[in-house]
Design brief:
Layout lengths: L4 H9 L4 E5 L8 E5 L9 E6 L3 H9 L1 E8 L5 E14 L2 H9 L4 H11 L9 E6 L3 E6 L9
Antiparallel strand pairs: 1-2, 1-4, 3-6, 4-5, 5-6, 5-7
Length: 149
């Protein structure tokens, strides 16, 4: 059963590791890699990557990418979103903290940010990419059986 708008946005806003996919443009299958991200309902999806990474080069060429997030235990739920990149900005300390806080405890966030090399004046060669959701696919394959709250 497809998720309604609120359900899919809330699920995407949850803490999941996403699969990012971007067209290669060379006759090969899309590049697909796991990635951390952050999203607030109604907003843009943001990811951090190296400015000189294969992901960044391919996303720059394609102008868009897609993300898939899923829950693989009953009930199985997924949300897939794709859209254009509307911003590619040098990563800030605030970006690093926002992203890492979704996945790590406070000590882990501090270690992650300090180890990234990102400072108030240097993005350490990282980019924050913002995707504007354009197309959505979603489903709860629990066939009407929702996970208890």
């Amino acid at each position: 059963m497809a998720l309604d708008r609120q359900e899919r946005e809330e699920f995407l806003a949850g803490r999941h590791v996403a699969s990012l996919a971007v067209e290669r443009g060379d006759g090969r299958a899309p590049l697909t890699v796991p990635i951390w991200y952050w999203y607030e309902p109604g907003g843009q999806v943001r990811v951090i990557t190296g400015a000189d990474s294969a992901k960044a080069r391919l996303i720059s060429a394609a102008g868009r990418f897609s993300l898939l997030v899923q829950r693989t235990v009953p009930t199985y739920v997924y949300v897939s979103v794709d859209g254009p990149v509307v911003a590619a900005t040098p990563t800030t300390v605030a970006d690093m903290v926002t992203e890492a806080s979704r996945y790590l405890d406070a000590e882990g966030v501090d270690d992650y940010v300090s180890g990234s090399g990102v400072t108030a004046t240097d993005s350490a060669g990282l980019l924050t990419l913002s995707l504007q959701p354009e197309h959505w696919l979603s489903a709860d394959l629990g066939w009407g059986q929702r996970e208890p709250s």
